[in-house]
Amino acid sequence: MTAFGRVEVSRAYFSCPACGLGDYALDARLGLEGFLGPQARQFVCLAAADVSFAKAQRLLEKFLGWSVCDETIREAC
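^ thats the sequence. predicted structure below, dont judge the formating
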């Protein structure tokens, strides 16, 4: 989820042939740590600043058309 709404991202996953550990190399640099991008996380936290996470969920749906569960909002905040 970005500040502009939901986007689908496709990227390469790299793993070590010896140990099997891997990662999406650019995720941290691009701000793709988890479901919310940096500005989307800021919107979510602002929406939940003075209300319950469930009410913030309804506000985000109504104002931005976002479908973000209250648990994702809680984790972001």
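The two ends are 15 Å apart (CA to CA).
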